[in-house]
Records
---
Amino acid sequence: MSIFARPHYTSEITNFIEEMKEKKPTLEAEQRAGRALLWDKHLDRDALEEYGQANVPQQPYVYQTRVK
C-alpha cells in the first residue's frame, strides 16, 4: 500500500445530496424547470438598447440642488 493512498472520503453534505437524489429521482429535472422559470429568459436586445439610450446621467450627489 502506498503512503499516499487514502481511504475514499465523502462529506455529510455529499451523502445527504446523494441520498436525496436516490429518494427523489426527479429532483434535478424539477430544479432545472425552476431555474428556467425564474432565470432563463429570452432578452429583447432592441429593448435593452433603447433602455440604455434612455438612461439619464445622475449627478454626483443626488440631493444637492443644481448650481449653474
---
Amino acid sequence: MTSASKRIDFVANTAAAWGDALPDWVAELAREATRTTATRTARRIGYSPAVLSAVFAAKYQGNMKTVEARVRGALMGLTVDCPVVGEIGRDRCLDQQRMGNTGASSIRARLYRACRGDCQHSNLKEADDAQP
C-alpha cells in the first residue's frame, strides 16, 4: 500500500458530516487537507489538526467565524484593505491583531494602534486592552 492510497478523503467525510449545509469555505478546507495533509493545512491557517477535525465533523465549538476568515484569507485569497499596510490577506490581518506592540518598528506600533482602534476589520475590542 502506498502512502498516496493511505490518504484520508476529507472531502467525502466532511460532505457526509455537513450534508447540504456544507459551507464553501469548509469544502475548500477539506480539499486542501485532502490535497496535502490535515497537519499542513492546519498549520497554514494557524490552527491545530484537532480544530480541523472538529470543523470537518461539524462539531467545532469555538469561534467558527474566525476559522472561516482564516480559511478565506489563507486558502481562498480574501484580502482586506489595512489602514497601515494596504491590501493584505484576511488571515494575515488576524495575525497582526494578535501581535503585541513590541516597539520593534514604527509600522508595528501603527498596526497595534490601528487594530485596537477603529479599523473595520478588527475583531478586537478596546475593553480587551484595558488594564485591570
